């Protein structure tokens, strides 16, 4: 059954990349729209926007900062937990951030410097002095017009001017307001609906009524009022308004220069920082998308290295990474087929080798059985009266070789059949003493030292299996010492991955194991003894492995060998489980 690795999206990306790009585009549009209003209001007032506007403007950067903080925190957690790909993600993010920083730093510096220089340049023009001079010229010009108008009023009798009369120079119009004989003469643009005043003299100028003119009210007999309009020119009031407007602008520029640093900070936080934050957030999402296929390939490669060839990575990418993933899947499939073929051939080779070894081992005892039987048959045929002379020794030889065959077949069966892990516990001390007692009398020249064994330890294995392990190792030790020397048996409790193990060491003072033989010690049918079957140690290894333990050895030629065994264990409470 195939195991599929689904390609996943970034775990710590709060928003998907496509949605982030959409938000980024909307942010750029909002920046263009609101930046114009921001600059217009700022240049008109020269002040930082009010508190409510600041709160509204700062909402987007605040939200983006929260999103960015959550993404960076998630990446930091991945780094602490050493999740696959986290270091690569962090390295790519640093690269992206540096690129963005190096890109914006010159622009930021140039922008702030340019704004400072522009404001300083305008301020250095001494605009107030120019404004004062212009206002002085405007006031003098107005005074000259007033003097000229007064002179015209003194030199002419306007009460006698009638419709159609020629008007003096610079006089734009004369309008009479009376009950019966009202009239108007002059330029129509200076005509009025009502008199500006009922008293004689210069009435206050009112804009836009009096644009480009100075008026004089002459009160006559009765209720008649004559209004005389003096033409200042069409550009007089326009130029005067322009001077006043420029003066206000210069005041705004001066105020802007005082608040330039606050305005720059506000500008960068409101319009520049969100773009930068969005760039970093998108960079985080892109780094995860880039590294995710690599992480999946790394994890799949690790599983393949551990022997799991059922891994397949699911990818919908059509780029080079997708091609790499598809190539990896094809490679794993080929490896699985190759491994299956190798395993099949290896099994066939192992069973062929075992069959050949078993046939060879069976052939050895069959020869003396055949010879003994033929000897009995010949004696029976040639000298039946004296068959008793060879009957006993021939039959004993047949029985002995038959027992050897039985032992060989029993060991072969033990090695080949599946073995269920034990669910019972055996007392280690009792098993060691029983095995030692059975061999100490037969080998008086062997000194058995079991003083450093823990008698109350319980081993999770059947008692007969434990005795089989100890018997095989002790017989090998005795054979290695040629029946004389010392065997030291020690036990100890060790922990591996929170599981308690009993470590049994069996050390002999024999000849040791040669370098050429060490890698074949646990190979079936390999033996250095003339009468050995070569199945003892492979059976021991099989029993120990099937019970969740391990076996290994240390050996030095001429100095002896020590076998180590780890089996699941625990201490007994008063010797009972």
Walk me through the structure.
- With 577 residues, this protein is α+β, with helices and mostly antiparallel strands.
- The protein folds into four domains: 3-125 and 251-305, no CATH class; 148-238, no CATH class; 320-415, Helix Hairpins; 419-571, Heat Shock Protein 90 (2-Layer Sandwich).
- The protein is 58% helix and 15% strand.
- The protein has helices spanning 17-45, 51-81, 86-124, 127-155, 236-258, 260-305, 320-382, 388-416, 428-440, 463-480, 515-518, 536-546; strands at 3-6, 171-177, 183-186, 213-219, 225-231, 311-314, 426-427, 446-452, 457-459, 485-496, 499-508, 550-556, 560-571.
- The strands form three sheets. Strands 7, 8, 9, 10, 11, 12 and 13 form a seven-stranded mixed β-sheet that branches. The chain has a four-stranded antiparallel β-sheet with strand order 3-2-5-4, with no helix packed on it. The protein has a two-stranded parallel sheet with strand order 1-6.
- β12 (550-556) and β13 form a beta hairpin.
What's the total number of strands?
Answer: 13
Percent strand: 5-15%
Q: List the total number of helices.
A: 12
Low-confidence stretches: 5-14
Kindly, what is the distance between the CA atoms of the first and last residues, rounded to a whole number of angstroms?
42 Å
pLDDT averaged residue by residue: 76
Helix and strand sequence: EHHHHEEEEHHEHHEHEEHEEHHEE
The backbone outline, from C-alpha atoms, is rod-shaped
What's the Cα radius of gyration?
56 Å
The number of distinct structural domains comes to 4
Largest sheet: 7 strands, mixed
**What proportion of the residues is helical, as a percent range?**
55-70%
Q: What class do helices, strands and sheet pairing give?
A: alpha+beta
